Amino acid sequence: MSSKNRLKATKTQGKKLKSHAASNVSPEQQYPAFSLRYLDQKHGLEQCNQEQKAALIETIHKLSQLTWNHIYSSNRHASGCEKIAKMSIKVPIPKHIPKDANFIAFRFYGMAPMIGYRDETIFYILWLDIHFSVYSH
């Protein structure tokens, strides 16, 4: 077969998306992204019922519509958050967590919090504290 009869390869790569992190906008003015990558098995989704799981998703969706500035300025029991001191955490802290990480709690089911830490715009959820046993309340 001659080279004239070959089909040309079609491009399969689309346009590249521009990263928000690469922009000049500060993380506080951006919207949070949520990660379950490091969710603890003993305080995770397996311990939640369907209603609690639905409340978690609704809370994540609601928070993802607000900037970090707005979240920090909100009442801690509404859309806001609460800082949790490391020394009040009662469960083992995973070794991969940065030493300078600040723990934050968001209420997701009544007063039950999800606890994690923030890295730039990403909030890593570590524990779902439905039994109020992860930290001293």
UniProtKB/TrEMBL annotation:
<protein>
    <submittedName>
        <fullName>Uncharacterized protein</fullName>
    </submittedName>
</protein>
<feature type="compositionally biased region" description="Basic residues">
    <location>
        <begin position="1"/>
        <end position="19"/>
    </location>
</feature>
<feature type="region of interest" description="Disordered">
    <location>
        <begin position="1"/>
        <end position="28"/>
    </location>
</feature>
